[in-house]
């Protein structure tokens, strides 16, 4: 029997990868892990409690918030506040960035951007949901952090991860030195290393896109979908189509099995639907660290300029060869 490595132990062991670090990033990751367990407990109880339904408020994107979104947002913020390593939180659920103005946090070095509960419309129907997080070092030296601290390019992330609340709950993260996955063992209440050094196959046979919007897609995307559907023995086509409506679940599956996830611009969403800062960038960092690639159809996601907290982007992400091929088809029509 191999010895169990908990998330806490692993984070401490890996601190040696950052010889000049003083343990702040490790503590920050540990704080996120603690909040994830609390959110997991509530997500698991969702069907039992009178917690479903709209909280009654509308977020900046004009979407109604579910109560569990609000709960998850509060839990992560509270863990980050009490941990003291994070000075600014950017969240899908908050219109503005939140500067943590407490004695222990005001000069903290890190910024956290997050989608506390992504795919939350799936909660009502017991389909997997997820949390996505992205971590940056602040640029300003001290005092109140600025908008510039919050609006950093994806390439400047120091860590990113996601939690999938699925048939089992997993936390997957990178600090820029590969990707590792931990499965929550409910009997001991610990995330345990279950997927060391995760890599995504270079080629895949799954495509994930909301084909219901087909008529509203750009021609390059239509061409790629048709390519996926055409029979060809040599390339093992037609590919399989899988789409849950939870980005974390779709990407997690594609990371393990190989595949591409696409949310392009559409006639209704001319800049795409997904948010660059706390959905596309962290997922792009993780997938690239696993050997895959992420693009907006024309440019690497991690190099895109960030001008707004809730900026949207198209995304093509997953197995490197699939994303490159989709990019080629986008070029045909640009
Ligand atoms: P949300 O942040 O409001 O939950 O929206 C993000 C989700 C993604 O998880 C998912 O891939 C996408 O929205 C699904 O959108 P659609 O229903 O338009 O296909
Ligand atoms: Mg989201």
Main-sheet strand order equals: 4-3-5-6-7-8-9-10
Sheet with the most strands, sense and barrel status: 8 strands, mixed
- Which ions, cofactors or small ligands are bound in this entry? 2,5-anhydro-1,6-di-O-phosphono-D-mannitol, magnesium ion
How big is the Rg? 19 Å
* Count of DSSP strands: 15
Average pLDDT for all residues: 92
What are the low-pLDDT stretches, counting only 5+ consecutive residues below 50?
none
Number of helices: 8
Euclidean distance between termini CA atoms: 55 Å
Organism: Mucilaginibacter gracilis
Subcellular location: Cytoplasm
InterPro entries: FBPase_C_dom (IPR044015), FBPase_class-1 (IPR000146), FBPase_N (IPR033391), FBPtase (IPR028343), Fructose_bisphosphatase_AS (IPR020548)
Cofactor: Mg(2+)
How would you characterize the overall build of this protein?
The structure is a single chain. The chain is α+β, with helices and mostly antiparallel strands. The chain has helices at 7-14, 24-44, 67-83, 147-150, 219-229, 247-257, 276-289, 320-331; strands at 54-58, 64-66, 86-91, 98-99, 110-118, 129-137, 159-165, 169-174, 179-185, 190-195, 206-208, 240-241, 260-263, 293-295, 315-318. The chain is globular, with a radius of gyration of 19 Å. It starts with 6 loop residues before the first helix and ends with a helix. The structure holds 2,5-anhydro-1,6-di-O-phosphono-D-mannitol and magnesium ion. GO terms for molecular function: fructose 1,6-bisphosphate 1-phosphatase activity; magnesium ion binding. Its EC number is 3.1.3.11. Substrate binds at residues 118-121, 210, 243, 273.
């Amino acid at each position: 029997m191999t010895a169990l490595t908990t998330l806490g132990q692993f984070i401490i062991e890996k601190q040696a990868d950052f010889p000049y670090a003083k343990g702040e990033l490790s503590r920050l990751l540990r704080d996120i892990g603690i909040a994830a367990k609390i959110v997991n407990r509530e997500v698991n109880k969702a069907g039992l409690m009178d917690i479903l339904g709209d909280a009654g408020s509308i977020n900046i994107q004009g979407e109604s918030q579910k109560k569990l979104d609000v709960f998850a947002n509060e839990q992560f913020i509270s863990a980050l506040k009490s941990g003291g390593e994070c000075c600014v939180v950017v969240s899908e659920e908050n219109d503005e960035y939140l500067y943590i103005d407490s004695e222990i946090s005001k000069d903290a070095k890190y910024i956290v951007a997050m989608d506390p509960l992504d795919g939350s419309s799936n909660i009502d129907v017991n389909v997997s949901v997820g949390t996505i997080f992205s971590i940056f070092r602040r640029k300003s030296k001290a005092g109140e952090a600025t908008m510039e601290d919050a609006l950093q390019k994806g390439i400047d992330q120091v860590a990113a991860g996601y939690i999938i609340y699925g048939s089992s709950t997993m936390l997957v993260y990178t600090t820029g030195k590969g990707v590792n996955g931990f499965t929550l063992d409910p009997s001991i209440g610990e995330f345990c290393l279950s997927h060391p050094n995760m890599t995504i196959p270079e080629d895949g046979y799954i495509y994930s896109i909301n084909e219901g919007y087909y008529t509203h897609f750009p021609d390059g995307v239509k061409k790629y979908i048709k390519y996926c559907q055409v029979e060809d023995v040599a390339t093992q086509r037609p590919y399989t189509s899988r789409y849950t409506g939870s980005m974390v679940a779709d990407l997690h599956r594609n990371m393990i099995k190989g595949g591409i996830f696409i949310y392009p611009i559409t006639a209704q969403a001319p800049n795409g639907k997904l948010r660059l800062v706390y959905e596309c960038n962290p997922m792009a960092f993780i997938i690239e660290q696993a050997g895959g690639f992420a693009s907006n159809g024309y440019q690497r996601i991690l190099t895109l300029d960030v001008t707004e907290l809730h900026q949207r982007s198209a995304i093509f992400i997953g197995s490197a060869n699939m994303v490159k091929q989709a990019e080629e088809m986008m070029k045909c029509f640009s």
